[in-house]
Write a structure and sequence with these properties.
Elements: H1 2-31, H2 37-45, H3 49-66, H4 81-84, H5 109-145, H6 147-161, H7 165-173, H8 181-192, H9 194-207, H10 211-218, H11 223-260, H12 271-278, H13 287-314
Helix pairs in contact: 2-13, 3-5, 3-13, 5-6, 5-8, 5-9, 5-11, 6-9, 7-8, 9-11, 10-11, 11-12, 11-13, 12-13
């Protein structure tokens, strides 16, 4: 009798111990929360030093463009030929007007570097927004409807892609007597939307075959609802990656056009304008050309690093 009682007592203890051991295992998947593509990408980006460095640099450039008076009290247009003509940089005077020296007209290079960020970044951001909207619209229409409309839009895209946008923008800008920021934006965007259109079309062709799109179409959802609510949110990842990487290229394109004399011009303060003016003093005062050129390079590199980090975070194959 005592032995049977002992067996009865041990059996519940073994059962309860086994249930306790298996409880965490069965409860772990239930407690874990599934993350979306964007939350998973943000989780990876916060731990990527490349993203953090580039994000800090871009934030600093944006603040510089939005509020240049926070960085200097000097005017980028005040010239003093009598005292400051090609005065060499004074590297010990941090954030002072003579920190980077003075250029050929006696204007502070440091002040022009600070104020020049606004025009260069405005062109880069403006072109990126324009080509993203136009390219995404063309790519979505071509990829979703297919057929003759896809063939027509694809051939138009091929024609524009065959024209180098720098050369085409140069030809377009020569027809304008006054080249303001919005003119340069439209000239570059007119020929620069083809890459995003190709990317958007490829993404839409793949997404429109998904089950949730087929189900939405079977339930009678309108074409605009399917495109805006189901296809566009899922096609944004590759479009954002391409647009972010291309933004730095558009800033470099503006500097190149200004250097060639067909982009922005005086009295607009721009890094490209300063590079074009600095080539005249390249031998006796190379810093006049080198300093704004370094700013263009740092800005382009920051956006390229930012785009690479976002691409690695959004592409599961690269993790």
């Amino acid at each position: 009798m005592p032995e049977k009682t002992a067996d009865k007592v041990e059996l519940p203890e073994a059962t309860s111990t086994a249930s306790e051991a298996t409880a965490p295992e069965s409860g772990a998947p239930a407690s874990a929360k599934a993350r979306s593509l964007w939350s998973d990408a943000w989780h990876d980006l916060r731990r990527n030093p490349l993203f953090l460095v580039s994000a800090v640099l871009i934030l600093l450039l944006l603040v510089m463009a939005a509020a240049p008076s926070l960085f200097t009290s000097a005017s980028p247009r005040d010239a003093d030929l009598a005292k400051h003509y090609l005065q060499h940089p004074n590297w010990g005077h941090f954030f002072a007007p003579d920190w980077f020296g003075y250029e050929g007209q006696g204007r502070s290079i440091y002040a022009r570097v600070i104020y020049g960020a606004r025009a260069s970044i405005l062109v880069g951001v403006g072109v990126t927004v324009a080509v993203t909207i136009l390219g995404t619209l063309v790519g979505m229409i071509a990829g979703y409807f297919g057929g003759w409309l896809d063939s027509l839009l694809s051939r138009i895209t091929d024609v524009f892609m065959g024209i180098p946008y720098l050369l085409g923008a140069l030809v377009i800008l020569t027809t304008f007597a006054e080249r303001k920021i919005w003119v340069v934006i439209l000239a570059i965007a007119f020929l620069g939307w083809t890459t995003i259109a190709r990317v958007a079309r490829g993404a839409v062709v793949t997404i429109k075959q998904a089950d949730y799109v087929v189900a939405a179409r079977a339930l009678g959802a309108s074409t605009s609802r399917i495109l805006l609510r189901h296809i566009l949110p899922n096609a944004l990842a590759p479009i954002i990656v391409v647009a972010t990487i291309a933004l730095g290229g558009y800033i470099a394109a503006e500097a190149t056009l200004s250097f060639l004399g067909v982009g922005l011009a005086e009295p607009t303060v721009s890094w490209g304008v300063d590079v074009a003016n600095g080539r005249q003093q390249l031998r006796n005062a190379p810093y006049v050309l080198i300093i704004p050129s370094v700013m263009v390079s740092v800005t382009v590199l920051s956006f390229l690093m930012f785009g690479d980090a976002v691409r690695n975070a959004l592409d599961p194959k690269l993790r």
